[in-house]
Structures are given as structure tokens and as C-alpha cells.
Amino acid sequence: MNITAVAQRARVSTATVSRVINGTAIVSAETAERVREAIEALNFYPDINARALGSGRSGLYGLIISDITNPYFPELVKSFEDIAVEHGQDILIANTDYDPKRMEACVIRMLQRKVDGVAIMTSEMEDHLLRNFNNRQIPVIFMDTPKTVRGASTVRVDYAAGVQQAMDHLFSLNHRRIGFLSGPLALSSARVRADAFTDCLREHGVASDPRFVQEGDHRVEGGRAAMQRILDSGKLPTAVMASNDLTAIGAMGALHDAGLRIPEDISVIGFDDIELSAYTRPALTTLQVPRRELAETAFRSLYRGRNEEDVKRSLKREHVIQPKLIIRQSTALASKARSAK
Amino acid sequence: MNITAVAQRARVSTATVSRVINGTAIVSAETAERVREAIEALNFYPDINARALGSGRSGLYGLIISDITNPYFPELVKSFEDIAVEHGQDILIANTDYDPKRMEACVIRMLQRKVDGVAIMTSEMEDHLLRNFNNRQIPVIFMDTPKTVRGASTVRVDYAAGVQQAMDHLFSLNHRRIGFLSGPLALSSARVRADAFTDCLREHGVASDPRFVQEGDHRVEGGRAAMQRILDSGKLPTAVMASNDLTAIGAMGALHDAGLRIPEDISVIGFDDIELSAYTRPALTTLQVPRRELAETAFRSLYRGRNEEDVKRSLKREHVIQPKLIIRQSTALASKARSAK
DNA sequence: GGTGCTTGCTAAATCGGATGAATCCATGAT
DNA sequence: ATCATGGATTCATCCGATTTAGCAAGCACC
Q: Per the CB < 8 Å rule, is B49 touching A67?
């Protein structure tokens, strides 16, 4: 069931069949129709491996992430896959597990499969690995990397603006004693958020209390532990912001165990808007990172279709995406009584 | 940078290089060494597309799931990917979104990419689609399908045994008035659980109250709604079992809103043990479905390596996996006072 | 010395499409 | 009538590996 069979049935050459399928050259309407009928009748679809070999394009796009088990990623993966499939492309997913060694293995897999582009959302990537892609003219886009990377496009989330929105929200609710549960500070994307927090406090003329800033690990357990440290410090903020939702969920657990009510006693605000945050009790106020948009931007930046538009669009090398404040039930007015305690 | 370059450098033919790489025939030690040096020196790795075309094996395994956004799946996907990569294979993920039309598109993608095997974990698959794989001798394994499928292996979770364990646990805690929040009853894998529940009650000689059994949708919102219906019915069970953890989480939300304490007023038990269930308040007692084992069994069933062992192992057509009860804080002794209320 | 069997390797066909160059054909211009 | 034009199609080659058939050398045996 190959292209030759189709060609014979339609009484044309294989080249014509190929051209009808790909629309790469003008074929007369009747011939095209004959070919299409033959394809239909034989239930033929081309072997992508053969196509990739002949054309150099594999129709595969790599997506390197840290860990699909982190609830932030599935929606991103799904969106990325959706758009890819819409364009007749497939995706190859790879988890690095935050491990540089595995990152190297991932890159090699991508190269072997001859991906047409790679989107990367995980900590840092060593230069020599990136060069592999550059040398082969494989477009690369980093998602979520604050710094600009040579030889690659970036689409970053404007974390600072997000933190600012959150802080404005808290300030408008009369909060002044605000804590921050950061992500692992070794990650620059986590540092951006922590720094933005400090900046916001300064802008509002509030002195920051070092006890109120604790490092977590962007996971539930780290959030719980970080919150516990604040609780143990003796002095309580009226609100805490977490570097991501998992951290916030952990923090809420610690607060709950300490017998504190959210939001009456203390407000909590997260970051990311993972699906589950709508279902915690109380539902978590957070910053929505538009993952669909993130994925679409990344894919379009990589994809070079046959039409001009795509190519034109792909020229923009730096994209920024704005998070959006989602107000739910975990934040409320700072009660005077409490804040004076 | 292709096999010819390596062959020239090692002063052998491309066939010899191929054999050294794949170990498909005897090559003298010195020649092999020369070839390996050349490969090293040129930093060569074979083009998988070319290899797939020549050998018929793509080294790609398909994994068709409903929706990676459902927290049940990421761990499965990750495990599957891990084992595949360990064996030098890659995976192609496809979401059906519970939509038969998309299912067909997924199958076609798999066929075009010439996958070497397909693992399927989603509702049902039409026969004519399955036949596509059978005709091409592509092994297929269904995960989570209760019924045996002709022309495919299966690895199913013993849901009935899981429900039984949960019920035994509840009975041992003196619960008699037990509710059940099912999944969508159109799904046979959900029906299995609902039926097992009824059977368990009967075995323990307890009459089931129809008001206590409500249909959900295996998602948080459906669980919340189903629990609400029980609450609205006026009569309260002392414990509820949910068909999966998301349903249980929704139910806990509804109970929380109704001012009921878990587990003091009512016990809740889930199914699946998604990661988050350890972090709900209270932490959810549930049945762990060993996803890693599920993924491994599925992959091994599909993979046919070069050695005999793999082939032998792949002969077993039906596998069953046992869930395991994980007792956390959401279940406790039924209080006399309450249960008599 | 011939026969048969290994071992170690090569040349060439093959997989299934993509694609640049060449050809064919109809039309219109000169 | 001749030729240029350009649209439609075919031819031949290529992509980069795998794999089959086959050859040559070495060895044992009678």
C-alpha cells in the first residue's frame, strides 16, 4: 500500500501523487481528482518515515519539560499537542526530571528523530547542547526563561507583572504584613518572582521582614514546610503569596493544621492557576498563566508552514505573556484586629 | 554525517557499520573497534527515519489516552516514557478527549508514524480501528478495559478487588450506611466499580439505599454535585466511597461547605491515589493503582527486543494488577451517635 | 587437491516517498 | 508555419539507513 500503487491506479507517476498530496505544484483539477479517488479507494496514507527521509522534514516537534507529573505541565503539553496536530505535526515529549544528564539524553533523542523544532520549558540548558540545534538549523524556543538566549527565541511569562498584580490586590485589601513563599532560588524563574515581591514592598514603602520570606521547592511539601517556618517564627503576616500554586496548597495545609482560617485570619494567593486551585477549600486566588497561549506562541514560532504568514510570524524572536489575576475565596480584607495582634 | 562517512573513515562498507551498531552479525573484534572509533570521532548517530524506512521498525510506541489533563494520567505517561527510553524507544502520545472522532485521527497518526506497538487507555475503540493494527501486525494492549478484546492483550486493574478492600476497611470501622459516588456509568470501567460496591453491600448483608448511590463524572465538579444530591436527600451515610479521587475531592468540598467534618462526621474514601490526594485536608484514604506497574506491563507486552526473554514475556496476553489500600486521615470509626442520627 | 563449512566482509538492491530537471503538449504570438 | 511560453506531467535521482546475496579467505577433513 504505497505511493506506487496509488500512482498505478490513477494512471499517473508517483511524482504527481506526491504533488497532489502535498500541494507542492500545480496539478490539473481532473488529474488531482483521479489521484484523490485512488487514495480514497486504497485507503492510503503516506509513510511519514519515508517522507521525512526524502524531504528532510520529520513533522515532529520536540517538547522538553521538567516533569509531566507537575500539574503545571499537562495543560501545556496538551495545548502544544493540539496545535501541532491541527497542523498535521506530531510531538515528542521528554522529561528531564530536573537532571542535566537526562537533559543531554533528551537532546540526543530529539536530534536522532530529526525534529523540526524544539520547545523547552525547564531550568537551564548548557550552551554546547543548544549549539547542536543551531548547527542543524533547528529552531529552538525557550519558554519561561527570563534571560534572552542567543540562537533561540523566547516566550516568557511576565512574572514580575503578575506578582505586582497580586500585591496590588493584597494592598487594596489593606494588607501590609505580607509573606512570600518562594520557589527554589537556584532557579532564575523563581528568583524573578521573589525579587518582584521585594520590589513591590519597597514601592509601597513597606519594610520587608526577613522572617516572612521563606524558600520552598515549588511543590506541596516545600510550601507546607516554608509556611510552618513562618508560623514558628512567632510573628504572623496577614497574607502570604506563594511562588506557585502547589506551594500555596502546601501553605494552606499548614495553616489549616495550625487552626487558622483562610481568608478570615490570613489571606493566601498562588501563582499558575493549575486546575486544582479552583477546587481547594477555600478556592485559591491566584495568577493565571495562560498555558494555551504559551503553547501556541511557542509552536507558531517553531512551525514554518508553506504559507508566508507563518514564516512572517516566526520572525518575532521574543514574546511576553501576561498572567491574569483570578480572584477566588482565599483572599479577603485584612481584619484590623488580626493585623494588630 | 551519515553512515557512509563512518564507513569511509573506518575503511569498511556501510553494511559493516550497520552491523556493528545493531549487533546483527559477527564482526571481528578489530574491525568493530575501528568502526566504533570512527563513530566516536565523527559523533555519529544514525538517522532514525532512515533506519525505520529500511528496517520497518520505527522505535516508536503509541500511547493513546483520554486526556493528559486528568491527573491520573501524567504518572502513567511518565512511567511509560521512562521504560521506553530505557529501551532506546520513543513514545508518541495522543489524547482522544473522550471523542471517537479524535480517536480515529489518533489511530491514523499512529499508523502513519509506523509505531511498533500501541497502548490504549481510554474508553472503547471501534473494531474497524483495531483491525488496522491487526492487519499490520502491530501489537496492541488495552489498559483498563474490563472485557477481553480479540486481537489485543489487556492489562486491567482489578477494580472489584479494590472496592472490596475499601469496603472491608469501612466495615471494619463499623460503617453500615455507606454511599457511593460513581463515575459516568456509560464507561464500563466505572460500572465495574459501581457493581462491585453493590455486591459488597449484599455480601455483608446490608440493604443498599438508592439515595446513597449517585452518578458523577470522574471529575471534581461531578463529585461535588453527586455528594450534594446525597446531602439534599436528607438522609446521611456515615461514609462515602468515590469511584476516583477527583470525585472524592469534589465530595469533600461539598461536605466541607455543608459544615460536616471529615472523618469525624463522615468518612470519605477515593480510588486511584493521585499525587494530590496525599495533600488534601484531611489527606485522602484511597486505593493506589500502581501506575508504574501498569505502564511497565503494557510496554513489556508490546516491546519485542532482540533477546528471547522479551519475546517470551510478551506472550502472556492478559495481565491483572491489584490496587492497594492506602489509609490516610479521611476515614475513621463510625461514631454511634452520628450513625443513629 | 578437492569439497564443504565458517567467518568476515562488500556491493547492490531496497524501503517509500520528495524533488529538481527534463519533457510533453497546447496555446498564442510573430 | 515557426517559435516562444508556460502549465502539466514524468524521469531520474536522492535521502540514509537495513538487508540480502554473494564472494573470498581460512580451515578441516578425507
A: no
Within 10 A of A30 (CB to CB), how many other CB atoms are there? Answer: 8
* Contact between chains at A112 and B249 (C-beta distance less than 8 A): no
Residues A96-122: b if buried by 16+ CB within 10 A, e if exposed: bbeeeebbbebbebbbbbbbbbbbbbb
Cell numbers given for A181: 513563599
Per-residue pLDDT band for B231 (boundaries 50, 70, 90) equals very high
Does residue A183 have a pLDDT over 60? yes
Q: With an 8 Å Cβ cutoff, are A90 and B92 in contact?
A: yes
**Hey, is the C-beta of B21 within 8 angstroms of any chain A C-beta?**
no
* Strand ordering across the sheet containing A117-121: A90-95, A60-65, A117-121, A140-143, A153-157, A318-321
| Cβ proximity of A75 and A131 under 8 Å | no
Cis peptide before A146 (omega within 30 of 0): no
The cell numbers describing B83, all together, are 521504560
> Which residue bears the cell 494567593?
A269
CB of A287 within 8 A of CB of A164? Answer: no
Strand C contacts (CB < 7 A) among A residues 225-264?
none
Asked if A28 has any chain B CB less than 8 Å from its own CB, the reply is no
At B2-34, the pLDDT tens digits run: 999 999 999 999 999 999 999 988 999 999 999
| Bridge partners for A143 per DSSP | A155
CB contact at 8 A, B239 and B268: yes
The strand pair at B239-242 and B178-182 is best described as parallel
Please say whether the beta carbons of A140 and A133 come within 8 A: yes
